[in-house]
Every structure is written in C-alpha cells, then in structure tokens.
Amino acid sequence: MLNKFMSRILIFTLLISLIFSQERKVVEIPLGGSANEKALEMSSLTWYKDELVLMPQYIDFDDPAFYVIKKKKISTWLESGSSKAIVPQKIKLKVPDFRQSIQGYQGFEAVCFKGNNIYLIIESKNEGIMKSFIVKGVIDRKNGTIAINEETLTEIPLPLNIKNMGFESIFEYKNQIVTLFEANGSNIHFEPKAIAFNKEINTYKSIEFENLEYRLTDVTKVDRRGRFWAVNFFWPGEEKRLKPGYDEVLEKTKKGKTHSMFKHVERLVEYQIKNNSIKRTTSSPIQLELNEESRNWEGLVRLDRKGFLMIVDEYPRTILAFVKR
After folding, report:
1. Which domain holds residue 180?
2. Is 153 within a domain?
3. β-pairing, 297-303 with 307-312?
C-alpha cells in the first residue's frame, strides 16, 4: 500500500512539473503609426488608469512623445481575433534636452506612475562608464501632456560597471519608488540590492534583493500582496558580460520545449516585496515559446487576470504581444 501511495505521489508530482513547464504562446498585436518605428526602441510599459503607456528609449526631440492605447481597445482586439493593427495615440512630452545635460545620454529605460506623478529612469555611457538617473514629472491627461522636471534629476548609484547595464526597472510601493538593477547574476553581483526612493526622489535606501541570472528588464505593478512579475531575458551574445551561474529559477520546474532547443531565455519570474526585502515567490516561471531568433523583451504589464502585455525594442523589431497567465 505504501509503495502504491508513493508511486501515485511521484506520478502526481511529475504531472504537475510537466504542466508548469509548458511554454506560453506569444500573441503579437500589430502596431500601426509612428509607434511602430524601430528607431524609437520601445523600452518600457506601464498603466496610467485605463491606458497602456508605451515608452520609447529614444524619443524624437523634434516631436517628443510617449504613446498610449486604451485597455478596452486591446481587450476588444484580443476577443475579436482581429488582425488589424492598433494605432497608439501620442501624448506630448515637455522635456529638457537631456542630450545636452547628461554626457553620453542613452535614453529612457523605465517608467511608472504614482497618481499623476511620473517617474523615469535614464541611462548614459560616457568614456566606458555607465550611469543611471531617476527623474520626476507630471501627467496632464486632459491637455495630453507629460512635463518632466529637470531639477529633480538624481543619479542612482550603480553597484558595478558593465557595458549597457544599468537600473532597468521601476515600480511604486507604499509611497516608495523602487528601482532594480539589470544584472544580478551570482558570478558578477554578489549582494544585489534594490534602491528605494521617497516620492520626492531626494532620499533613498537599499532593499535586499536576490541573485537572478541573465537580465531583468522590466516589472509589473505591485499587487495587494506585494507581488509583481519581472522579465528575465538572456541573449547568448552577452554571455561573457553576464557570466551566468547556476539557474535557481529552474530548481523546481523543467525547461520548456523550445528553451531546451535554444540558448536564449525569455521568461517571467514572480517576486514579492515584504519586510524590506524582495524575494522570488514559489510560483513557477512563465516560459515563453521561443523563436530561433531571440526577442529583446523590454516592457511588461499585467492585463487584468487574463495575462500580460509585453514589448520588444528593436531586436528583431518592435513587437507588442499578449501572453496568457
């Protein structure tokens, strides 16, 4: 009897493992208009009320703007099975020319809102030295503008200097604006920390974080339980820079079918912020169904309980997509 019981437990465990290692299909939502221009390099997603905000890394300083799509429009598109492109609306930016004030300016990397306040991360590289900055602004949706206040520009201290790696994610939690570094692997970043600013972004503190191999490129908003999801991406061309170690994310699950075929990694990992620390939850990673060519996922939001919306920058092209939960 005991052997039969143990056998059933083993079979059940294996079935659960197989279920949770199933990869999710990526449903592309075609974009029309200027938001689809590859040169913008879409870099982050966030929600402002019922609108999805698409943030380019490199804005057009002659016509600076972010882009928005109504949530209802996205939901209707998904329910209808349409193939018609969605054309995002522009929301104008009143923004200083950071190309003049930040040496080696490399554009916007992350965005979040708290009420009508907007917080953004900017990246730069000058003479081989990477820097990250946080800046604050205000959205006036009635007049269709976002105004960035250059006087709030504050440097975020980087834990280490790696080419093209900086603070890449930002979220609001209990009146704190929390930022996460992009490279947190065990072989390069021995004691990862998140940096949490006050609302005025003039003081900050460290929050304990965990090692995560590969890159962390964006996060969702935090839910009522303090949980959020993060994009965890790996392009093999960055192997020498990132020096990947043991992948703890796969300890209790298996690689999906396409993840066993290719070296690149495209997945979502869930975290919880609690008691001045951020740790992975027991939720299995959500592995995306891979193509032979990797997709550089840069933006992530939840879409209610349906799943997630994600965006790729320019590699291989601008892609807005839906992934089931």
Report:
1. 29-221+298-324
2. yes
3. antiparallel
Listing from the earlier edge strand, what are the strands of the sheet with 297-303?
26-29, 319-324, 307-312, 297-303
Task: Tell me, yes or no, whether 302 lies in a domain.
Answer: yes
Pairing of strands 145-156, 89-94: parallel
CA distances to 46, 91, 152, 238 from 120, rounded to whole Å, are 11, 15, 11, 25
Q: Any bridge partners for residue 140, and if so which?
A: 145
Q: Nearest to residue 255, comparing CAs of 231, 285, 235?
A: 285
Alpha-carbon distance of 78 to 80, in angstroms, equals 6
pLDDT tens-digit map of 257-267: 999 999 999 99
Contact between 169 and 217 (Cβ < 8 Å): yes
Beta bridge partners of residue 177, listed in sequence order: 172, 197
Which letter, b or e, does each residue of 47-76 get, where b requires 16 or more Cβ atoms within 10 Å of its Cβ?
bbeebbbbbbbbbeeeebbbbbbebebbee
Give the model's confidence band at 22: pLDDT under 50 very low, under 70 low, under 90 confident, else very high.
Answer: confident
Q: Across the chain, how many H-helices and E-strands are there?
A: 4, 22
Chain position carrying tokens 């075609």: 30
- pLDDT over threshold 60, residue 187: yes
Residues 6+ apart with CB under 8 A from 13: none
Phi, psi of 52 (to 5 degrees): -80, 125
CB 109 within 8 A of CB 163: no
Is residue 127 one of the residues assigned to a domain?
A: yes
Q: What is the pTM of this model?
A: 0.93
Residue 264 forms part of a structural domain: no
**DSSP character string of 73-121:** HHHHHHHHT--PPB-PEEEEEE---HHHHSTTEEEEEEEEEETTEEEEE
Our count of domains for the chain comes to 1
Are the C-beta atoms of residues 265 and 232 closer than 8 Å to each other? yes
Residues in the chain: 325
pLDDT tens-digit series, residues 28-83: 999 999 999 999 999 999 999 999 999 999 999 999 999 999 999 999 999 998 89
